[in-house]
Amino acid sequence: MRAERVLEFVAKQLVDHPDEVRIEVDEDDREVVLELHVHDDDLGKVIGKRGRTAKALRSLVKAAGSLDDENVTVEIVD
């Protein structure tokens, strides 16, 4: 899945502990939910100030998912 690869690549570039980036995929009939897990110290880097980084990440992944005709959302799990 293209969206999952995009999320993994970008998340690993943002964090200090790229080995601890993990993505869980939860699919149903209408959408795909990608749960992003990162090291506790990296949570702020993935969310960003006022959630701007998280919003940009979600937009990027949603666009990648649309290339595969999938409705993709990202949840950042702490």
UniProtKB/TrEMBL annotation:
Compartment annotation: Cytoplasm
Alphabetized Pfam families for the sequence: KH_KhpA-B
Listed InterPro entries: KH_dom-like_a/b, KH_sf_prok-type, KhpA
Gene Ontology molecular functions: RNA binding
PROSITE patterns: KH_TYPE_1
Keyword list, A-Z: Cytoplasm, RNA-binding
GO cellular component, one term: cytoplasm
Function description: A probable RNA-binding protein.
Family, as annotated: Belongs to the KhpA RNA-binding protein family.
Protein name: RNA-binding protein KhpA
Gene symbol of the encoding locus: khpA
